[in-house]
Design a protein that fits this description.
The protein has helices at residues 24-32, 49-60, 75-86, 106-111, 117-121, 124-130, 152-155, 194-206; strands at 9-13, 36-40, 69-73, 95-98, 141-146, 179-183. It is an alpha/beta fold and 211 residues long. It has a 6-stranded parallel sheet, with helices on both faces. β1, α1 and β2 form a beta-alpha-beta unit. α2 crosses α3. The chain is globular and about 50 Å long. It starts with 8 loop residues before the first strand and ends in a 5-residue tail after the last helix.
Length: 211
């Protein structure tokens, strides 16, 4: 699916237990780079993946039914991938995922076994545990992964493996990703990382990260 290189709109999708304002710093960086940015807000633990994906499509789609660029953090990436699978014929811009556990999250599975884990994760438990069950074809999707282990995964006993402290590096890999890059960042701090914003702009413009 050919990319319309004139696209300058970007939709930001936040992750678990967050709201749209968490993406404000990144929105400013992308605006400074010449993009028009909007933030998709959704209830992370009280709605099913299907409903979240449908709401994202309704929010993001343009008048002709096509989609702009999308930058999604953590669970937001799983919602974005599912939305693209559900709308295979909608042309889209490029997609950047940030620390998204597309292979499923070991940290989420461990948290779900805590006494209050099911309540903490709510409807997000299945989304995070399962990861991306299907992959959209013909999309230019890049992944930014962090390699500073500070986060929920450490508390859940997953600090022994390479990752961003919440998502393991191997959980962010997929054979059909257009590109994958690691930055020195934890799961949350990548939202405020200059290196991350530079890489995002690079991918949205060219379809490749800087290595």
């Amino acid at each position: 699916m050919a990319i319309d290189e004139s696209i300058r709109e970007v939709v930001l999708v936040h992750g678990l237990w967050a709201k749209g304002w968490w993406m404000t710093h990144l929105a400013g960086k992308l605006s400074n780079a010449g993009f028009s940015v909007s933030k998709f807000d959704y209830a992370t633990t009280r709605s099913s993946l299907d409903r979240q994906a449908a709401a994202l499509y309704e929010f993001a789609k343009r008048d002709d039914g096509s989609l702009p660029h999308i930058v999604a953090h953590s669970m937001g990436g799983l919602i974005t991938v599912h939305m693209l699978v559900e709308n295979p014929f909608a042309p889209s811009g490029r997609i950047v995922l940030m620390g998204s556990p597309i292979k499923g999250s070991r940290a989420a599975r461990r948290v779900s076994r805590w006494p209050a884990g099911t309540t903490l994760l709510g409807a997000a438990r299945k989304t995070l545990s399962d990861g991306a069950q299907e992959w959209p074809q013909g999309r230019e999707i890049g992944m930014i992964a962090g390699n500073r282990a500070v986060g929920l995964g450490v508390l859940a006993g997953g600090a022994t493996e390479h990752g961003d402290g919440t998502v393991l590096a191997r959980e962010s890999l997929h054979d059909d990703l257009k590109d994958h890059v690691e930055i020195p960042s934890s799961h949350t701090s990548m939202l405020f990382s200059v290196k991350a914003s530079v890489q995002i702009v690079q991918f949205l413009r060219t379809g490749h990260f800087s290595h």
